[in-house]
């Protein structure tokens, strides 16, 4: 994995990340693994709004599902 993001007890690993300061967004994509004390998430894309702090977790193919495992 090329990208590692750590925040408190959360860690996100992925292959790519784009910072868009003009639109105040971060896009993390390609083989995402998200780890926290509550469980894990596997997805294709995470979008974070830097102003509102809202996070969207998506799959590229609408027929696929985000994989969530709760401890």
Fold and architecture overview:
The chain has 71 residues and is mainly beta. The chain has no helices and 7 strands. The chain is globular. Strands 1, 2, 3, 4, 5, 6 and 7 form a 7-stranded antiparallel beta sheet that branches.
The backbone outline, from C-alpha atoms, is globular
Q: Number of helical runs?
A: 0
Oligomeric state of this protein? single chain
Low-confidence region ranges: none
Order of helices and strands: EEEEEEE
Percentage of residues in DSSP E strands: over 45%
Roughly what percent helix?
Answer: under 10%
| Whole-number mean pLDDT | 93
Q: Major sheet, described briefly?
A: 7 strands, antiparallel
The Cα radius of gyration reads: 12 Å
Q: Which structural category fits the helices and strands?
A: mainly beta
List keywords for this structure.
71 residues, seven-stranded antiparallel sheet, mainly beta
In short:
The protein is mainly beta and 71 residues long. It is 0% helix and 65% strand.
Topology of this structure?
Blueprint: E1 3-7, E2 10-14, E3 16-20, E4 25-36, E5 39-49, E6 55-58, E7 67-70
